[in-house]
Amino acid sequence: MTSSKKPDKYYAILEGALKVFAENGYHKSQVSRIAKEAGVADGTIYLYFKKKEDILTSLFQEKLGELVEKFTQGLNNQMTAKEALQKVCEIHFSELEGNIHLAYVTQIELRQSDLDLRKEIGLALKRYIVLIENILEKGKRDGSFRTDFDVKLVRLLIFGGMDEVVTSWLISGQKYSLTAQVIPTIDFFMKGIES
Amino acid sequence: MTSSKKPDKYYAILEGALKVFAENGYHKSQVSRIAKEAGVADGTIYLYFKKKEDILTSLFQEKLGELVEKFTQGLNNQMTAKEALQKVCEIHFSELEGNIHLAYVTQIELRQSDLDLRKEIGLALKRYIVLIENILEKGKRDGSFRTDFDVKLVRLLIFGGMDEVVTSWLISGQKYSLTAQVIPTIDFFMKGIES
Amino acid sequence: MTSSKKPDKYYAILEGALKVFAENGYHKSQVSRIAKEAGVADGTIYLYFKKKEDILTSLFQEKLGELVEKFTQGLNNQMTAKEALQKVCEIHFSELEGNIHLAYVTQIELRQSDLDLRKEIGLALKRYIVLIENILEKGKRDGSFRTDFDVKLVRLLIFGGMDEVVTSWLISGQKYSLTAQVIPTIDFFMKGIES
Amino acid sequence: MTSSKKPDKYYAILEGALKVFAENGYHKSQVSRIAKEAGVADGTIYLYFKKKEDILTSLFQEKLGELVEKFTQGLNNQMTAKEALQKVCEIHFSELEGNIHLAYVTQIELRQSDLDLRKEIGLALKRYIVLIENILEKGKRDGSFRTDFDVKLVRLLIFGGMDEVVTSWLISGQKYSLTAQVIPTIDFFMKGIES
DNA sequence: GATGAATGAGCTTTCATTCAT
DNA sequence: AATGAATGAAAGCTCATTCAT
Question: Which parts of the sequence belong to the HTH tetR-type domain (chains A, B, C, D) (predicted)?
Answer without folding.
Answer: 7-67
